[in-house]
Design a protein that fits this description.
By secondary structure, this protein is an alpha/beta fold. The protein is built from nine helices and 21 strands. A five-stranded parallel sheet has the order 5-2-1-9-18. The protein has a four-stranded parallel sheet with strand order 13-12-11-16, with helices on one face. Helix 1 runs parallel beside helix 7. The radius of gyration is 21 Å and the shape is globular.
Length: 383
């Protein structure tokens, strides 16, 4: 995402850039630097997970192959599969789970966020292509078998998953979305956004249970369809029958690579404290970009790409001896798909018509652009 570097310029001599995490921020930065310096992208997964297509991959048979993009075909020898277990600022190196030490002059932490499947593909962290396909094919089968589905959590993941199920199985399944707040998707959205979003979901037949929290979550079977109905209970006494319960609860920063080494630079939620140049507090050559940085803005793939483009530009500034350029957080923006035929988008308080969101996001979920950015053809879905 982001705009990318239009005219690559000289980078600092003897630059050794290490990027931890191959999400939207990490892959954008790796593409920016590929062929221009000594660079390595480290991620425990075999594939880049195009997270924006995850909800459709959980419902539409075969769609998962459009969301898993092999790292090695894009980055070759610049990709190293492994899990970073510690960061060593004193020696300018990181240590992997196999004991290997990788030196750096500049370190970019882009570990993103984690949350429950199917919203995120982070359990296990070291998922392979085949494991990823199996996981999503599995949830597709569970959704297909279920008649009464309860989605726990009405953030973007819950909203989009509700839209996908209600669109593909129109009138065939009872879908209930339970959320502890009256506002869904994001608390920063205005009343018009909320009215339009709720209206689109209700038009599809989604039952909204708002201002109530599921009280027996730990005792419910998650992500698997049961023959008998289970009772989902809320803290306000409501009981909802379901034979499939899917967790869609909030995301949090993925701190596993840095919590033991940079704990003093972490916020309570696990994100890293950064300055205006996205440098981690107290470290001029260690940066945090994307969801793991404590930048006060909406956590979006586009913003993560902008972080990557800024730190690339500042490497060029460093090489020239120029001052670093500060990052300016973007204004509030959000685009949600509600199945393939509808969506909602807002920017600067203006709520756009559903057809705009449909054409911008819902129809293709940025799949063609993402595969193009990774320099690979989109695989054919098996019929």
């Amino acid at each position: 995402m982001g705009f990318g570097s239009s005219k690559p310029q000289a980078l600092p001599e003897n630059l050794k850039a290490v990027i931890i995490g191959g999400g939207y921020a990490g892959t954008q930065l790796a593409r920016n630097l590929k062929g221009r310096c000594e660079m390595v992208l480290i991620d425990p997964k075999e594939v880049f997970h195009h997270n924006m297509g995850a909800m459709r991959a959980a419902v539409e048979p075969g769609f998962v192959i459009k969301t898993l993009i092999p790292y090695n075909k894009t980055f070759g020898d610049n990709f190293k599969r492994g899990m970073v277990t510690s960061i060593n600022p004193a020696s300018n190196s990181v240590t992997l789970d196999n004991g290997e030490t990788v030196p750096f002059t500049h370190l970019y932490i882009a570990t993103g966020s984690k949350g429950p499947f199917p919203g995120k593909l982070t359990n296990p962290m070291s998922v392979s292509m085949e494991e990823g396909k199996s996981l999503y094919n599995g949830i597709v089968e569970q959704v297909e078998k279920a008649d009464n589905i309860v989605l726990v959590g009405g953030g973007p993941v819950g909203v989009e998953l509700a839209g996908e199920i209600a669109t593909d199985y129109a009138g065939k399944k009872k879908v209930t979305l339970v959320h502890p707040h009256e506002k869904i998707a994001d608390q920063n959205t205005n009343d018009k956004f909320q009215a339009n979003l709720k209206g689109e979901l209700e038009k599809l037949g989604v039952n909204l249970v708002l201002g109530e929290r599921v009280s027996n979550l730990d005792s419910l079977p998650m992500g698997c369809t049961t023959q008998n109905l289970n009772t989902v209970k809320t803290d306000k006494g409501k009981e909802i029958e379901a034979n499939l319960v899917v967790p869609c609860t909030g995301l949090r920063p993925n701190a596993s690579a840095y919590q033991s080494s940079l704990g003093d630079q972490m916020e309570k939620n696990g994100s890293l404290k950064v300055n205006e140049y996205l440098q981690v507090e107290g470290h001029k050559n260690i940066y945090a970009i994307g969801d793991c940085a404590n930048v006060k803005e909406t956590k979006l793939a586009y913003n993560a790409g902008c972080h990557a483009d800024l730190v690339t530009k500042n490497l060029e500034n460093e090489a020239k001896g120029n001052e670093l350029k500060p990052y300016k957080p973007s204004g509030f923006f959000m685009a949600l798909s509600i199945g393939r035929n509808a969506g909602i988008m807002t920017s600067g308080g203006w709520v756009m018509p559903s057809w705009i969101a449909k054409n911008v996001k819902a129809k293709q979920l940025f799949v063609p652009m993402t595969w193009k950015n990774m320099g690979q053809p989109i695989p054919e879905m098996k019929k």
